[in-house]
Amino acid sequence: MSDHPKPLPEISDETRPFWDGTRNQQLVMQQCARCRHIRYPISRVCPECLEVGHEWVPLSGRGEVYSAIVFHQVYDKAFADDVPYNVSLVQLDEGPRMFSNVVGVPPSQVRVGDRVRVVFDPVTEEVTLPRFTPEDS
Amino acid sequence: MHSLKDRTAIIGVGATPQGKLPGSTQLSLAVDAFKAALDDSGLEKDDIDGLLTFPGTTAPEGPLNYLRVGEALGIDPAFTGSMAMGGGTAGALVQMAAMAVESGHATAVACVFGDAAKTGGSRFNRASGWGDSWGIWGMMGAAANSAVAASRHMALYGTTSEQLAEVAVACRRHASMNPNAVMRDPITIADHQASRFIVEPLHLLDCCLISDGGVCIIVTSAERAKDAKQPRVLISGMGQAYTTRTLEREDWWYVPHQKEALDRAYAMAGLGPQHIDVAQLYDNFTISVLLWLEHAGFCKPGESGPFVEGGRIQLGGELPVNTAGGNLSESYMEGWLHIVEGVRQLRGQGGERQVQGAETCLVTGRGMTLNCSNAMVLTKGEA
Ligand SMILES: [Zn+2]
Questions:
Q1: Is the residue at A90 inside a domain?
Q2: In the predicted model, is pLDDT for residue B123 greater than 90?
Q3: Is the CB of A73 less than 8 angstroms away from the CB of B199?
Q4: Half-sphere exposure at residue B154, Cβ-oriented, CA atoms within 13 angstroms
Q5: A76 HSE (CA, 13 A, CB side)
Q6: Is the Cβ pair A40, B133 closer than 8 Å?
Q7: Would you state the pLDDT for residue B102?
């Protein structure tokens, strides 16, 4: 492993519920109190109706691969031991999309349309990253 | 909207040498480009009363770049500012210049760009996303978003890597006819396929260069551009469109705003794709050219892969694209040279790569994480 640290999320009052959720093996996102839109990325207001009020709701953690790419180039030396690695844009069943990694399968074998489910990867004591794996695995 | 059709013109263009230029700085390149464009235009320095700049990736003063460039050039402008929209900046600044001229805020506006990205340590490799950066998942670098677009386009429409290669091959062939291009050795589809992956599905030869260089474009009124040193090139149509949203837009990857920008430009010009003789389409990566071709109406959505086969976008083909080599092979001037090449084609100054009889040129620009787009229809003014 490289001793150069990988980027970590900036945990603030606004984002803490998301990262508390992943540490507790749950994917949670903000649902607007007014129009019920589930938003991501994490934001102060609903981008649909500008309402501040929201509830952190648990998601199923299931979805499908919307786009899949494989990094061969090392842009940050912290990832030097990881290439080639997959990054996927995941379409979650409840509506939001997020970038993450599909793991547990060779990176080039991840296909658009593959069904996936969330898995939780504790990378530090404070941070557990949500990643995805094929749904049937 | 108040139409600017044929109200303004590009009277001067200039560029520095391109490539690896040790000892150059953002400022030295911007200044040299300005001098070249001023000389090209036949105007005097005191004629320039508008100054718009793009700091690129290596100006330490960032958005205060207009002050630094203005001081270096000894210009106290009536209208000025700096803007940073990556590859969307050139077109946005030229359009802003046209608006300033039309509204009387300035009479001749120099749009200036310099970047020592090759030797000066560029910042193209950062991660995208606000707040929690996408870099958490290793999603970083300039190629990533275009790779996302390519992956999705391939899955939906069956577009192939060999079809992407057609774009790289066309640009390189055109660059081979451009003495100022950085990469001039012709390549084949096989060369493209054999080049290493950067971010799959994109190979090295799907990617633009990183370059040092400067470019300047001078805009004035169509009236003033009459009987000037150079043949007149009119800005007949212009349009812009943006999506600031990324993950919240399902079709973000397809850059749908590009079509809005193009439709605005076509509507102002009163022209459509069937009237375009030559196109300079922003090519940070090969996939971008495919998306532009679809949005610009040269083919239907999803059909750009087959469209680019068989040399259709090469010189001599139905629609010559990026006739100077583009960002992929001429130099990565973030689209500034696309406008310059459009002007040269309409002046008939394309040399070996001239599209015979070219009277209309479509020029497009796009910047940041698939967010900013613009388009211009340039036409040859009567003598
Ligand atoms: Zn709402």
A1: yes
A2: no
A3: yes
A4: 21
A5: 21
A6: no
A7: 97
For the annotated catalytic residues of B, the residue numbers are 282, 332
Q: Is residue A22 part of a domain?
A: yes
Residue among B189, B96, B217, B172 nearest B324 (CA): B172
The residue of B159, B164, B200 whose CB has the most chain A CBs within 10 angstroms, and thus the best one to mutate to test that interface, is B200
**A133: buried, middle or exposed (CB in 10 Å: 19+, 13-18, 0-12)?**
middle
pLDDT tens, position by position, B59-78: 889 999 999 999 999 999 99
Does the beta-carbon distance from A111 to B134 stay under 8 Å? Answer: no
- CATH number of the domain residue A20 falls in: 2.40.50.840
Compute the distance from residue A96 Cα to the ligand 1 centre, in Å. Answer: 14
Measure the CA–CA gap between A26 and A24, rounded to whole angstroms.
Answer: 6
* Among candidate residues B366, B27, B36, B320, the one with its CA nearest the CA of residue B178: B320
Cα B145 from Cα B193, distance rounded (Å): 20
Domain boundaries, chain B: 8-121+209-380
Reading the block at residue B70, the tokens are 């203005």
- Segment A50-80, tens digit of pLDDT: 999 999 999 999 999 999 999 999 999 999 9
Residue of B138, B148, B198 with shortest CB distance to A82: B138
- What are phi and psi for residue B322, nearest 5 degrees? 55, 60
Global ipTM: 0.96
How many structural domains compose chain A? 1
Residue percentage of chain A with pLDDT more than 70:
97
Q: Which of B369, B84, B38 is nearest to B229 (CA)?
A: B38
Any A CB within 8 A of B251 CB: no
Interchain CB distance below 8 Å, A71 and B134: no
- Which residue range is the domain that position A28 belongs to? 16-134
Distance B246 CA to ligand 1 centre (A): 17
A72: nearest CB among B129, B131, B198: B198
The residue of chain A nearest to residue B146, with distances taken between CA atoms, is A69
CA of A38 to the centre of ligand 1 (A): 8
Partner A contacted by B274 (CB < 8 A): no
Percent of chain B with pLDDT over 90: 89
Architecture of the domain delimited by B8-121+209-380: 3-Layer(aba) Sandwich (3.40)
